[in-house]
Amino acid sequence: MAEHESSNQTLEMEKPKPPLRCIVKLGGAAITCKNKLETINEENLSLVCQQLREAMATNSASKVFGMDWSRRAGDPMVVDFDEDPAMDLDTNFIVVHGAGSFGHFQASRSGVHKGGLQRPLVKAGFVATRISVTSLNLEIVRALAREGVPSVGLSPFASGWTTSRRNIASADVSHIDKALHAGFVPVLHGDAVLDNLQECTILSGDVIIGHLAQLLLPEYVVFLTDVLGVYDRPPIDPNAVLLKEIAVDEDGNWSIVKPTVGHLKKEVEITVAAHDTTGGMETKIAEAAGIAKLGIDVYITKAGTIHSLRALKGEVGNVPDDWLGTVIRSSKQVHPLR
Amino acid sequence: MAEHESSNQTLEMEKPKPPLRCIVKLGGAAITCKNKLETINEENLSLVCQQLREAMATNSASKVFGMDWSRRAGDPMVVDFDEDPAMDLDTNFIVVHGAGSFGHFQASRSGVHKGGLQRPLVKAGFVATRISVTSLNLEIVRALAREGVPSVGLSPFASGWTTSRRNIASADVSHIDKALHAGFVPVLHGDAVLDNLQECTILSGDVIIGHLAQLLLPEYVVFLTDVLGVYDRPPIDPNAVLLKEIAVDEDGNWSIVKPTVGHLKKEVEITVAAHDTTGGMETKIAEAAGIAKLGIDVYITKAGTIHSLRALKGEVGNVPDDWLGTVIRSSKQVHPLR
């Protein structure tokens, strides 16, 4: 995991009360149409939001109280105030989303991740990238709000987060913590940010998750993506085997616990998608390993499936046979008899 | 002006280099259609953005390099990279906008300004208000970016700003300052925020302006609204007289310098629009007076006119006869012979 230099202010927030239940990463590939510029995968996003609500629900019989009271693309606004609303939710979640088909074009075309704000093209790319990713953030906040999840957008740049040569330099989480305590679900995202050494860069959602996990120590972290989990070779290969449990030791080295190695290709290949300016599955696994080292279970699974619902509820710690996904955890936490 | 308790961190930023040139308030009434729910006054907004660019231009012959590279309402994206872009702008401006027909419905219907997040309706209203005002913020950032102004949205809630019984309690401006130094134009807005005493409230754009002016000491502040300035009675009254210059003394009392009092109604009436949850012209004048007391000229005029362009350029300090608007300034700054 990236080296994080944290301020004293952020370290004070390490143990919030009540403890944070879950940090969820909504992968860009899961909630957008990766190959269609700035297009949301509405069906998947809606499913993910419904499942998040279900995972938070303390009373599944409660009626959804929609919180997006804004017009949508020309529609008139309809807000039903007739009933006395209830909000039976354990909202102790943080959502972080990737960019998918938002922001990447703007960032890679201008080279924002390489820095150099003196160049007009980079400065314009910074502005254009932020416009694209914040418009996605707004749509995700709205989709959650429509499902009755009290979501609030927290843009890392607006929160004053900065980097030093692409690693987080300062990232005050005190207002994330305040928002959580007030009963809101903070929704963060990969963003263009200022960098102390190269003036600007792209801070990826995966790096944000690693940082938040370190400071806020959630019970578990869920990565929702467009494949079932981590495979021993590219998942389009028909012989690809889903790795169901990976153990990470103190040095960050990882080994496959389940299935047993006999079934597997010796060297696990990790593919990095070419369009992804902030790294693909490799970054994801590196960040997941960094989180697992802290003793926090990481579940990687496919968004909008029965498997993602179980993961969001935190019910897959024992890696059930009928659950499809990957659990990454500290080797100290792996049950010796399983 | 509201009593501001500032943190040490914010006070360190009092004298940025180079000095801030201007803080501009885009009044909600000027950039939205006040009586049409969540509808932007596209023509006015576009004019305001063009004038802001013109006020910033150091070389008026430079071609506009558009920075909004996102799709708009179904349109395909067209980004022209053929030319080597130039950016001959003095970007040392901050923009703060009101909500107009965005956010007010959501806030007033749920009573967010009165606090009480334990009530589901208030919590939902908080979420709904932020969705509405941040969607307006995104559209204003995009409109500025299309005119080649390197604008970045900075939502007060996301920046961790909080209030104590509606007055600003903490509002760290260090990242606004960093954004300015990096050559960006921060765009802030009236927002729903957490309140130390009543859990939540609405922080108005006018209060934000007062706070920023106090900490960042701009050369001048411009309020762009839907009337030419401050009148001695409601401006729809045919006998209403435009007050061209108002002096504010150290105690915040104000007197009319121009025109001379003989022409005026004795008691100046100030109207407060009923739909405005954060106060109308009265709050505006109180905030303007608070800023003027600091020795900073405040220009109030109508958006999208020749008068607003002159105000944005800072060319109306001597209150020209052919300029229509109101200058509010410290009585110490008023020229004794004029």
Quick synopsis:
The structure is a homodimer of 338-residue chains. Chain A has one domain: 3-Layer(aba) Sandwich (Carbamate kinase), CATH 3.40.1160.10. In chain A, 29% of the residues lie in helices and 18% in strands.
Architecture per CATH nomenclature, i.e. the level-2 architecture of chain A: 3-Layer(aba) Sandwich
CATH topology of chain A: Carbamate kinase
The CATH homologous superfamily of chain A is called: Acetylglutamate kinase-like
| Quaternary assembly | homodimer
Mean pLDDT of chain A: 86
The overall number of domains of chain A is 1
Q: First CA to last CA of chain A: what distance?
A: 28 Å
How many H/I helices of chain A?
A: 9
Helix content of chain A: 25-40%
Given the helix and strand composition of chain A, which structural class is it?
alpha/beta
Profile the largest sheet of chain A.
9 strands, mixed
Q: What distinguishing features does this structure have?
A:
homodimer; 338 residues; alpha/beta; Carbamate kinase; nine-stranded mixed β-sheet; four-stranded mixed β-sheet; 29% helix; 18% strand; globular; disordered N terminus
Description:
- 2 copies of one chain form a homodimer.
- Chain A has 338 residues and is of the alpha/beta class.
- Chain A has a single domain, classed as Acetylglutamate kinase-like (Carbamate kinase, 3-Layer(aba) Sandwich), CATH 3.40.1160.10.
- Chain A has helices at residues 8-11, 28-31, 42-56, 104-110, 120-146, 174-181, 205-216, 281-293, 306-313; strands at 22-26, 93-97, 151-153, 162-164, 167-170, 185-189, 191-195, 199-203, 220-225, 245-248, 254-258, 297-302, 326-330.
- In chain A, strands 3-6-2-1-9-12-13-10-11 form a 9-stranded mixed β-sheet, sandwiched between helices. In chain A, strands 5-4-7-8 form a 4-stranded mixed β-sheet.
- In chain A, a hairpin with a 2-residue loop joins strand 4 (162-164) and strand 5 (167-170).
- In chain A, helix 3 packs parallel to helix 9, helix 4 (104-110) packs antiparallel against helix 5 (120-146) and helix 7 packs parallel to helix 8.
- Chains A, B: It is an enzyme of class 2 (transferase).
- Chains A, B: This is Isopentenyl phosphate kinase.
- Chains A, B: The record marks 34 as: Transition state stabilizer.
- Chains A, B: Residues 90-301 form the Aspartate/glutamate/uridylate kinase domain.
